[in-house]
Design a protein that fits this description.
heterodimer, A: 318 residues, alpha/beta, TIM Barrel, 8-stranded parallel β-sheet, 47% helix, B: 481 residues, Aldehyde Dehydrogenase, Chain A, domain 1, Aldehyde Dehydrogenase, Chain A, domain 2, 2 domains, 6-stranded mixed β-sheet, 18 strands, 15% strand
Chain lengths: 318, 481
């Protein structure tokens, strides 16, 4: 589909220097906050029942990046999580496995061993997650170590300080460097939208990350509130849609942080469906970064299968 | 595999529809004495919902007498705070019975339950709450000290927002101390009749609110009745003109809220994604059965392709079907007659050379349906750019400069509403001061709030409803005796 006056993206042109990049990013159409929030609220009223709920729950399970990012993480905790990731519901082998397990870099080896050839991927946060406050050398070393240890995917954070002070080219170059260092792993770029404050900034940061070669754009680290919100997801989905129209390259989206219930996750999936459509309705293009969400999905899944709620004691805690 | 939404119908069992309804006069349902009963159907299925009485001239007379008696005997003597208490009570009951009212509205009107549930009913309750607050503060409304009520108000409302228009009419009339005889539209009488039950439940003194059902003849009898002090009408410009002619030379006061052909103006620096939502909400909200619908899209030529591509893509996601399904975006056209009118004007649009486009869309077999439709290549002289279609049909025109946008937007006999989409605040103000429309929305469309006055310029009528200004139509002018 043609996009009329949407800027034709020539990487060399717009990223020639900071001024060009700034001109490009500030030339993107603005986001009206009231309108974006109203649209998100309207889509939240969609009522997903019976067969479509079943379909949505399985799809969401298969899109989860099952995450543990605590200072108290241990190899034992990660192994438990990996077992859960491979077989979320031991009582029902038809339950799909999750997309990936997401851990800190030092636990990648443990996760890699535990997941084996299950098809569940290993994602590692890197680049001085969650603050991003380290030198580029340290960030690149962090990234390379995780990839060397077997990470299939790298979740990096952008330098929000640089972004907010208008040093867009610095942010861009850092993402490009991390992208090069993380190859062949997939790169997810965390915008930390809770610190960007405006939807205009979210849209600009999303384009910046895509221009720099990010394979996914991700909302949040989960360490800052607000994390993933529906209006932010809407703006990011519009960005990946417009970016594909403009460049032909499809970029994935990952909301993360604060999505704890099936109902909330289904609202996110509805938004994907009605904003970018089926092309993004797959774990290759959409992920949920979550830890407690999976158990609520399993509870709902059992309820749909048996007609009754079993209760939290029948869902394993990992 | 696509993400299909399984049917999610709202239950009909919350509402109890009677087989037949009488007229609500003097606080009771009574049989009509001289009309022919008629049936009201569900426009989405053509199923008969109930039989409704037609009020003839003697029934209208009874209703006006009951209203007069209640005015002189009770309502005008009641302390203002007491009037407010009744209105607050009504507002709370409307909220308590919201689901029932929403289901009934969607059944009788054909509008999606999402709209009746999230817009019509809550906004109706909000109007009663808002005017309840004014009842004992009229001295501070800028209408002079101790403004006096007019007496008996005859109110005639349309079928597009049956309960909401009832609230717009009844709440300010009662707050200022008038009593009312209200006639709902013949295709959508049921929520007004349920509202009559709410008046009973609220112990509203008999005769303060009277609801009489019927079509044009009943309305005419009400307009012509000598003991009516005020006519408030919302509906077509044609009928509005006839009412104005009828009451010319009488002592009756009148406010008219009539048709529109609003321009929704999108500048090249607009927030495009939200503008597209606003365009959709502007014309496809309530199947376009909205007098202030943004039925003319004026797009700046430099963003034309981008806006139209986005708009077409968005229209493909609209869900048309069962009004009671919670995921329905576009419901049924209210009546066979309205459907015929929409078809006729759309055919004229095509014949005049405009390009017609609708998203792929399966229409249900029974009932009255029309797909969301865009016309591009429309010129200012096309009939579809001039006449009110009152359906889900958008005419797209272009402009180059703000001056041209203003000239085209104002080039219509109507003047009810307009929309402006731009990120530039100064341009919004510049446009708003030049657009001859009662409401100008900036970066939004079809937003209603009881605190905000609503009404038209030119052939869109006169008088304002809502806000402090909405009280003025129901109190005596200082020069009146």
């Amino acid at each position: 589909m043609s996009t009329g006056t949407l800027p034709e993206v020539s990487r060399d042109g717009v990223t020639r220097d900071n001024a060009s990049l700034r001109t490009f990013l500030h030339g993107l159409p603005g986001v009206d906050q009231v309108g974006a929030e109203a649209r998100a609220a309207m889509l939240s009223t969609r009522s997903i029942k019976t067969t479509s709920k079943q379909w949505a729950i399985d799809m969401i399970i298969s899109m989860i990046d099952l995450t543990t990012l605590e200072g108290a993480d241990t190899p034992g905790k990660v192994r438990n999580l990996c077992a859960k990731a491979r077989r979320p519901d031991p009582g029902d082998p038809a339950t799909p496995h999750v997309a990936a397990v997401c851990v800190y870099g030092d636990l990648v080896t443990t996760a890699r061993e535990a997941l084996g050839d299950s098809g569940v991927r290993v994602a590692a946060v890197a680049t001085a997650f969650p603050s991003g406050r380290a030198s580029l050398t340290v960030k690149l070393a962090d990234t390379k170590e995780a990839v060397a240890a077997g990470a299939d995917e790298i979740d990096m954070v952008i330098d929000r300080g640089a972004f907010l002070s208008g040093r867009y080219l610095q942010v861009f170059e850092e993402i490009v460097a991390v992208k090069n260092a993380s190859a062949p792993a997939h790169l997810k770029v965390i915008l930390e939208t809770g610190e960007l404050a405006t939807y205009d900034n979210v849209r600009r940061a999303a384009w910046l990350a895509m221009l720099a070669g990010g394979d996914f754009i991700k909302t949040s680290t989960g360490k800052i509130s607000p994390a993933a919100t529906l209006p932010v997801l809407l703006v990011m989905l519009e960005a990946v849609r417009d970016f594909r129209d403009s460049t032909g390259r499809q970029v994935g989206v990952k909301p993360a942080g604060g999505i704890r219930t099936s109902k909330d996750a289904i609202r996110h999936l509805v938004m994907v469906n009605e904003t970018v459509g089926e092309d993004w309705l797959s774990p290759d293009w959409f992920r949920f970064g979550a830890s407690t969400l999976l158990n609520d999905l399993l509870l709902q899944r059992q309820k749909l299968a048996t007609g009754q709620y079993s209760g939290p004691d029948y869902i394993t805690l990992d | 595999m696509p993400f299909d939404y399984a049917p999610a119908p709202e239950s009909r069992s919350v509402v109890d529809i009677k087989a037949s309804y009488g007229l609500f006069i003097g606080g009771e349902f009574t049989d009509a004495t001289d009309g022919t009963p008629f049936k009201t159907i569900s426009p989405s299925s053509e199923e008969v919902l109930a039989e409704v009485s037609e009020a003839g001239p003697s029934d209208v007379d009874r209703a006006v007498k009951a209203a007069r008696q209640a005015f002189t005997g009770v309502w005008s003597r009641l302390g203002p705070a007491e009037r407010g208490k009744y209105l607050y009570r009504i507002a709370r009951i409307v909220q308590e019975r919201a689901r029932e009212l929403a289901v009934l509205e969607s059944l009788d009107n054909g509008k999606p339950i999402r709209e009746s549930r999230d817009v019509d009913v809550p906004t109706a309750a909000a109007h009663f709450f808002y005017y309840a607050g004014w009842a004992d503060k009229l001295d501070y409304a800028g209408l002079g000290s101790a403004p006096r009520p007019l007496g008996v108000a005859g109110q005639i409302i349309p079928w597009n927002f049956p309960l909401l228009m009832l609230a717009w009419k009844i709440a300010p009339a009662l707050a200022t101390g008038n009593t009312v005889v209200l006639k709902p539209a013949e295709t959508t009488p049921l929520t007004a009749l349920l509202f009559a039950e709410i008046c009973q439940q609220a112990d509203l003194p008999p005769g303060v609110v009277n609801i009489i059902t019927g079509a044009g003849d009943t309305g005419q009898a009400l307009v012509e009745h000598p003991d009516v002090d005020k006519i408030a009408f919302t509906g077509s410009t044609e009928v509005g003109k006839a009412i104005a002619r009828t009451i010319a030379g009488t002592r009756k006061k009148v406010t008219l809220e009539l048709g529109g052909k609003a321009a929704n103006i999108v500048f090249d620096d607009a927030p495009i994604d939200q503008a597209v939502e606003g365009i959709v909400n502007g014309i496809f909200f309530n199947q376009g059965h909205v007098c202030c619908a943004g039925s003319r899209l004026l797009v700046q030529e430099s963003v034309y392709d981008e806006v139209l591509d986005s708009l077409r893509r968005r229209l493909r996601t609209l869900r048309l079907g069962d009004p009671l399904d919670k995921n329905t975006d576009i419901g049924a056209i209210n009546s066979a007659a309205q459907l015929a009118r929409i078809r006729e004007l759309s055919d004229i649009g095509e014949a005049e050379g405009a390009q017609r486009w609708s998203p792929p869309c399966e229409l249900p077999e029974h009932g009255f349906w029309f797909p969301p439709t865009l016309f591009t290549g429309v010129s200012q002289s096309s009939r579809i750019a001039q006449e009110e279609i009152f359906g889900p049909v958008l005419s797209v025109l272009t402009f180059r400069t703000p001056d041209e946008a203003v000239a085209k937007a104002n080039n219509t006999p109507y003047g009810l509403s307009a929309g402006v989409w731009t990120e530039k605040g100064s341009l919004i103000l510049w446009m708003a001061s030049r657009l001859r429309a009662g409401v100008v929305w900036a970066n939004t469309f079809n937003r209603f709030d009881p605190t905000s006055p609503f009404g038209g310029y030119k052939e869109s009528g006169f008088g304002r409803e809502g806000g402090r200004q909405g009280l003025a139509g129901y109190v005596k002018d200082r020069r009146d005796v």
